[in-house]
Amino acid sequence: MTVTEPDTSQSTWVSELEEDGHDLPLSTRLSIADALTLGNAICGFMAVYFTTTGVLVPHLMGTSDGGMSKNSAANAVTLMLMASVFDLFDGLVARKLRSSAMGAELDNLSDLISFGLAPAYFVVVWGLVTDDAHGKVAALAAVMVVLAVVLRLARFSCTTLRDGVFQGMPSPFGAMTVVSLVLLELPFVPTVIGIVGVAWLMVSRVEYPKPRGRLALITFCWTLVSMGCLAAWTLGVPSGHQLLQAGCALQCTAAAVIPCFATTRRVNTIRAARREARAATR
């Protein structure tokens, strides 16, 4: 009688897999901040969805009344604003609570969707559905927006700056400025020039303060006001269109003024440092 030993290699391999499944490193487990970051990505994707189904598809089927549809455009922009709220709070939560090792990567990927792809796609559709626009030129401007966000996020991942500042216009602020330029309904050429200018500011070396403390509260309140302007415009509230135009104009003005103040402050700091160095050598 021949006695054969049981093959334990397979059972050992299965048990090792089970142990590995229970001992996943904490760095791969999603945190609350990561969940907020994923909400950012979802809002960006849904903004693309509403821009497609509510603006582009009716235009291609000939069922739109011309131009950007109010409801769908407002939904898309509101979702981008919601993405900026998620982006604001995931950083605050990550500093208060723990954040996984995937947090920075998730944040960059989500920002690329919500503040790179979504506003650029909004510009492309605007160039296709607006009567006085040129689709290919608008697509080129949109490409520059996407490339600017990609370069900005890549640079952010591999450089270290002093605490409390961003180098270049933050991508949520840039995305909202691009959308505001479109909603202002300016002539085509000035709008494209403004969009290209925003793309340049995002990859510039101008320093912007990070939204913390009081500035974070101001940013959140401004986002809520912007949503209110969009709602008033969509619902046809009296003077709702003028209210939206005023909000977009303020957004574009802030985008133009902040770099001027930041550059002036940096130049004054450099000059003061040089004066101190000269005084020390005398």
UniProtKB/TrEMBL annotation:
Entry annotated with the keyword Lipid metabolism: yes
Stretch forming the signal peptide: none
GO molecular function, one term: CDP-diacylglycerol-serine O-phosphatidyltransferase activity
Catalytic activity: a CDP-1,2-diacyl-sn-glycerol + L-serine = a 1,2-diacyl-sn-glycero-3-phospho-L-serine + CMP + H(+)
Keywords of this entry: Lipid biosynthesis, Lipid metabolism, Membrane, Phospholipid biosynthesis, Phospholipid metabolism, Transferase, Transmembrane, Transmembrane helix
Main localization of the protein described in the UniProt heading: membrane
Compartment annotation: Endomembrane system
Known EC number: 2.7.8.8
Enzyme class: transferase
Record carries keyword rRNA processing: no
Transmembrane segments: 38-61, 73-92, 112-130, 137-154, 174-203, 215-236, 242-262
Pfam families linked: CDP-OH_P_transf
InterPro entries noted in UniProt: CDP-alcohol_PTase-I, CDP-diaglyc--ser_O-PTrfase, CDP-OH_P_trans, CDP-OH_PTrfase_TM_dom, CDP_ALCOHOL_P_TRANSF_CS
Membrane topology, as annotated: Multi-pass membrane protein
Family under the similarity heading: Belongs to the CDP-alcohol phosphatidyltransferase class-I family.
PANTHER family: CDP-DIACYLGLYCEROL--GLYCEROL-3-PHOSPHATE 3-PHOSPHATIDYLTRANSFERASE-RELATED, CDP-DIACYLGLYCEROL--SERINE O-PHOSPHATIDYLTRANSFERASE
Record-given protein name: CDP-diacylglycerol--serine O-phosphatidyltransferase
Lineage per the UniProt record: Bacteria, Bacillati, Actinomycetota, Actinomycetes, Kitasatosporales
